[in-house]
């Protein structure tokens, strides 16, 4: 039984039964049985069903946002925006699915050669707690419109949110096309190891992603992974330090730092370091943050901060556990950080801004590029030369210049190294959810 407490005041949100491990075979069997029928459904009908599901989801925005707030601590207004983003994603894939296409090839004029996309079959979607509806809608929407059936396991930290999402969407789909199971990592691992699964899509920790990759290497299923990030922010000389500090604070403290592409480590040029750090400390002191998802997660964040201070880092703000109920943690700015500290080497996923002062842009760029992760990076610079160097040299999937959370909709990048593999968003996600078959049609004998 999953027991969920509100991270703001420790009150009980509710309990959720865990799907029994011996019931997974039946769930996957239903998905496999429905797969052929759903794949042969005209693409326009699949798109229409997903569009209907999006319309129904829009009617339940308030209910879903309330669950997100109570289970994860995300403020109500932000939770509503997040659900609406998920609705928009479903609508997008409902339109893109029917126009997803293959290619014809130029071969013998007397024959026809085609590259045809086909549904993979049964997709397992393992989704996170930090943005539970928006992320799930991307994976579920893309899988469904391309003709796959889906078994969805939401994070055990937000089972009520995931359960309601599944109920709303599955009510508009044929039996077996979308099913929701509940449980912790053991249930996710069992799904990933099943030979009845054709693709495992996972957004979450690097450790879980590596376990999934190992499991799918044995079964032959495709692994589509967006895992942890340790995103750098490079602050160059020549920029307004107060503007740069506001950008850094947004990147490090938004959603209490619980964002996959949050700023996790900061390299600032020595020429503006003092002004930047003063402004960043002021930004941090003025922020009233939502709680972290639970006390267990808060302990992990605080452990990294305490360890960094013991190794010589200095807290300009924050760094102490607050009194009172809930899982709150203050916006924390650490100076004097070194690249060997765990707060610089690992994803903190909390409202912590560790800063390293560098003598020049070259060193900052080199340090930013030296990491086991490769999700995203941000560079604040007034130099076009430095901007060009940054996007070319940083080994990450997404580079943002002068806008920490900027970007046009529909962008889809490949995360690198420990951050995962495969497209996770945009039209390209439809390619991940399908497999290509080459067909050669020649006329019969002489």
From TrEMBL:
The keyword Oxidoreductase applies. It holds the Pfam family Aldedh. GO terms for molecular function: oxidoreductase activity, acting on the aldehyde or oxo group of donors, NAD or NADP as acceptor. InterPro entries: Ald_DH/histidinol_DH (IPR016161), Ald_DH_C (IPR016163), Ald_DH_CS_CYS (IPR016160), Ald_DH_N (IPR016162), Aldehyde_DH_dom (IPR015590). Transmembrane segments: none annotated. Coiled coil: none annotated. SUPFAM superfamilies: ALDH-like. Keywords: Oxidoreductase. Residues 3-439 form the Aldehyde dehydrogenase domain. CDD domains: ALDH. It comes from the Bacteria. This is Aldehyde dehydrogenase. It comes from Amycolatopsis thailandensis. The lineage of its organism: Bacteria, Bacillati, Actinomycetota, Actinomycetes, Pseudonocardiales.
């Amino acid at each position: 039984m999953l027991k969920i407490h509100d991270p703001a005041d420790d009150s009980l949100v509710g309990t959720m039964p865990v799907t029994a491990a011996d019931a997974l075979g039946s769930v996957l069997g239903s998905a496999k049985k429905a797969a052929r029928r759903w794949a042969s459904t005209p693409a326009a009908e699949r798109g229409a069903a997903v569009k209907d599901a999006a319309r129904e989801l829009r009617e339940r925005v308030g209910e879903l946002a309330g669950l997100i707030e109570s289970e994860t601590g995300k403020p109500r207004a932000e939770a509503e925006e997040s659900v609406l983003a998920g609705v928009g994603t479903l609508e997008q894939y409902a339109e893109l699915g029917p126009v997803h296409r293959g290619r014809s090839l130029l071969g013998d004029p007397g024959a026809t050669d085609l590259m045809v996309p086909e549904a993979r079959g049964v997709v397992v979607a393992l989704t996170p707690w930090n943005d539970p509806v928006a992320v799930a809608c991307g994976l579920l929407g893309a899988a469904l419109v391309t003709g796959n059936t889906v078994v969805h396991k939401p994070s055990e930290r937000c089972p009520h949110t995931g359960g309601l999402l599944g109920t709303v969407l599955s009510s508009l789909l044929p039996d077996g096309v979308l099913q929701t199971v509940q449980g912790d990592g053991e249930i996710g691992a069992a799904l990933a190891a099943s030979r009845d699964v054709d693709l495992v899509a996972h957004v979450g920790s690097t450790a879980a992603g590596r376990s999934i990759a190992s499991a799918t290497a044995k079964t032959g299923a495709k692994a589509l992974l967006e895992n942890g990030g340790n995103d750098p922010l490079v602050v160059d000389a020549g920029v307004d330090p107060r503007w740069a500090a506001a950008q850094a604070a947004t990147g490090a403290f938004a959603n209490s730092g619980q964002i996959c592409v949050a700023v996790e480590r900061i390299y600032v040029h020595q020429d503006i370091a003092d002004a930047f750090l003063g402004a960043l400390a002021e930004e941090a002191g003025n922020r009233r943050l939502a709680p972290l998802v639970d006390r267990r997660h808060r302990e992990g964040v605080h452990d990294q901060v305490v360890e960094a201070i013991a190794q010589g880092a200095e807290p300009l703000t924050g760094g102490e556990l607050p009194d009172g109920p809930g899982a709150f943690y203050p916006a924390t700015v650490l100076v004097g950080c070194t690249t060997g500290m765990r707060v610089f080497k690992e994803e903190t996923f909390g409202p912590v801004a560790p800063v390293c002062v560098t003598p020049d842009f070259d060193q900052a760029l080199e340090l930013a590029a030296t990491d086991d992760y490769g999700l995203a990076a941000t560079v604040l610079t007034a130099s076009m030369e430095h901007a060009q160097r940054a996007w070319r040299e940083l080994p990450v999937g997404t580079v943002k210049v002068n806008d920490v959370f900027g970007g046009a909709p529909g962008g889809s990048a490949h995360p690198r190294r420990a951050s995962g593999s495969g497209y996770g968003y945009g039209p390209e996600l439809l390619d991940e959810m399908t497999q290509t078959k080459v067909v050669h049609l020649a006329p019969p004998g002489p």
